[in-house]
Amino acid sequence: MRENDPIRKQPQPNASIDKEHPIGGQMSDIVRGLLNRMRVPWLLKRYSNIGVLSLFSFVNGCISIAIMSAVADITKTPFIFPSLGPTAFLFFYTPMAPPASPRNTICGHAIGLIAGYLSLVVTGLTDAGPALSVGVTWPRIIAAALSLGLTAGAMVLCKVPHPPAGATTLIVSLGILKTPYQLVIIMIAVILITIQAFLINRLAGIPYPLWGPTKAPEQAKNPPSS
Q: Which of helix, strand or coil describes residue 172?
């Protein structure tokens, strides 16, 4: 095989976290950056070890949600809700992926909230109890399906895909959190956890975007010669 054969795999800039079963992500870069900041060179030798990354995920996940839970307890508002979990994981596992950008996160959740509430209005369920306590009816089935369909379609149309927003819209269309006041609180929580992600990733030296996703390098315009 020729030395410049394009079929050959090129070396990656960063070693795999797990060479046998690669799990991808940029988590090792975040851990390395934070350890550099804390000036603990003896830990840097193992920054990409799967156990170290697992511990980082555990601690960071606990801190992220604990902050929101504390605010929820102090203010007696729904500052904590299920779809914050996958959003936090995206922030610290693949922070440079488009779905993890502030624009996609905030706009995606906003679309989910609007679609969920609109589905309640269309099906006449704005005053109904949550599906978990009153049961699932045909109007509720329609509301859930409509909310998820609208969310998925609108995110694609607006070019702001953020998978956790699919859970957010179901939280609303299933009646778990549905009042306008609660929806505003949810958006505030999304903005706060996004700010936290920005601070931690930038502290680690990750060029996490201020708003929109970082554009990938442009590929060559000329197609390869056959």
A: helix
**Residues in Cβ contact with 36 at an 8 Å cutoff, skipping those fewer than 6 apart:** 44, 205
Buried b (16+ CB within 10 A) or exposed e, 194-221: bebbbebbeebebebbeeebeeeeeeee
SS3 content of the chain, % helix, strand, coil (to 5): 60, 0, 40
Q: With left for phi above 0 and alpha for psi between -120 and 50, is residue 91 left, alpha or beta?
A: alpha
Q: Write out the two tokens for 108.
A: 């995606």
Asked if residues 154 and 115 have their Cβ atoms less than 8 Å apart, the reply is: yes
For the chain, the structural domain boundaries read 82-198
| pLDDT tens, residue by residue, 184-199 | 999 999 999 999 999 9
**Amino acid present at 42:** W
pTM (2 decimals)?
A: 0.83
- Calculate mean pLDDT across residues 38-52: 68
Task: Yes or no: say if 27 and 51 are a contact pair by the CB < 8 Å rule.
Answer: no
